[in-house]
Amino acid sequence: MNKTQAEKQKKELFKKTPLAYDSLGKQERDAIFTFGDGYKNFLNSAKTEREAAEKIVALAKDRGFVDIDAFLAKKKTKSIPQKVFRLFKDKTVAMAVLGKEKISAGTRIIASHIDSPRLDLKQNPIYEDLSMALMKTHYYGGIRKYHWLAIPLALHGSIVKANGEKMDIIIGEAADDPVFTVSDLLPHLAGKLQGDKKISDVFVGEKLNLVAGSLPLGNDSVKERFKLGILQLLHEQYGIVEEDFISAEIEAVPAGDARDIGFDRSMIGAYGQDDRICAFTSLSALFDAPAPERTAIALFFDKEEIGSEGSGGAKSSFLEDFVSDLLFLNQEPTDSRHLRKTLINSQCLSADVNAAMDPDFKEVHEKNNAPLLGFGICLTKFTGVGGKSGSNDASAEFVGRIRTLFNENKITWQTGELGKIDEGGGGTVAKFLAQFGMDVLDCGPAILSMHSPFEVAGKTDVYMTYKGYRAFYNSPGK
Predict the structure, then answer these.
(1) Spatial distance between the Cα atoms of 210 and 181, rounded to a whole number of angstroms
(2) CB neighbours of 26 closer than 8 A, spacing ≥ 6?
(3) What are 417-441's pLDDT values in tens digits?
(4) How many Å separate Cα 420 from the centre of its chain?
(5) Which residues contact 221 (CB under 8 A, 6 or more apart)?
(6) Model confidence pLDDT, tens digit, residues 373-388
(7) How far apart (Å, rounded) are the C-alpha atoms in residues 179 and 410?
(8) Distance CA 450, CA 351 (A)
(9) This model's pTM is above 0.85
(10) From residue 338, how far is each of 68, 98, 191, 436 by CA, in Å?
(11) What is the pLDDT of residue 212?
């Protein structure tokens, strides 16, 4: 075989992994920037799971989606809505577009999560030390603690007062708002205290305390007058007292908007892209599935970053309850057997991000099986730790179906694992949904600086993820 023949054979046999940008025409190259602008706007208004849920519901209502609970509460109805949503405890959302086939034939599910790593205020947060008022926090999810030092932070959250009144707050996002920060130790004094220690020992969770103020209320004979000064301000501005923090959920998140990265503006830097990048793309895809063959469902879970626990996490009965009501809405049997068969017949993309190989930290990846920024949506057959522990591990048949679907729809895709086998690992909601017997595959974009206050995504990957999800929703029933 000569060189020409070998090159021809190579072209036929080798797997092709093109740069996503190379596969786009002029119109779609422009579209990735327009789509990216919409995504950045979503990120700016959805920095917490509550805000994300509120934004998702608002966008759904604008496009004619109906609250399924309000509809079912009516005694008599003239027609069945084809587009419905459910907001659960202000943190978890399910949406569906009814398909042409019966729901019991199986649905197309894309499941993302809308919580992100952060600092939560403790229930008794405010204290004073060294003539300063500070606030105690407890970190949520997997963070690198040092990322959260010496950066501007904003407070987002909800407070339920003693009289039952609920109040939402955002402090630190407007140009004239104050911000908060966790102070850091200067390098001149860090040598003995931190120099020879492991990162896990240097940065301690109990020292992630927010600087909240430094003006006292009263003269020096008043005890805790710095704490008192802050509580007085909070009472004047928001009508709250210290006990109200017991029934509050207040999150400290990076202040500021999502930004374009690079001279060419080809990337997006922002907090919370894991996993609101998949929430936005799956939501957009659902909006573009007006008449699917199989019922299309979008799930937006809470609590993924702490193991999918709680009533709004993927371990809960939220999906079963929603699908049961869809069956009822569509005048199909709702008994346990029909519900089980519906879920077994369904197919699901667990929409979550993977870790793109970083040019400066290549050693934690195995290069033949590492996703790259700019190479499209990533199919992650399994996650887990070590020997695939805690993973769903999608079947060859389902991976083959998605691969064929993407190829037929000219969607640039890649595959990837979450780092080297013994380097670490992670998980998604996939294994909890697979317990129903449905086919599930992890599928989403790869990003840099995952779980940091400023994650990085490629705009072409965001757009390809949207296209992939749209193709999945609109795919024929099989």
Answers:
(1) 5
(2) none
(3) 999 998 888 889 999 999 999 999 9
(4) 23
(5) none
(6) 999 999 999 998 988 9
(7) 45
(8) 15
(9) yes
(10) 20, 17, 65, 13
(11) 97
123's enclosing H/E stretch is: strand 118-129
Q: Hey, which residues does 126 pair with through a beta bridge? A: 135
| Tokens encoding 268 | 């997006």
**DSSP strand pairing (259-261 vs 248-254):** unpaired
Nearest alpha-carbon partner for 109 in 345, 373, 347? 347
C-alpha span between 464 and 225 (Å, rounded): 55
Q: Which two tokens stand for residue 181?
A: 């920060």
- Report yes or no: 263 and 447 within 8 Å, Cβ to Cβ: no
* Spatial CA neighbour of 409 closest among 382, 376, 381, 442: 376
pLDDT at 477: 74
Strand order in the sheet with 166-171: 166-171, 153-160, 248-254, 118-129, 132-140, 210-213, 181-182
For the stretch 111-162, pLDDT in tens is 999 999 999 999 999 999 999 999 999 999 999 999 999 999 999 999 999 9
Distance CA 17, CA 19 (A): 7
What SS3 class is residue 112? strand
443-464 pLDDT, tens digit each:
999 999 999 999 999 999 999 9
Structure confidence by residue, pLDDT tens digits, 169-217: 999 999 999 999 999 999 998 888 888 888 888 899 999 999 999 999 9
Q: Are strands 83-88 and 66-67 parallel, antiparallel or unpaired?
A: parallel
CB atoms within 10 A of CB 448: 22
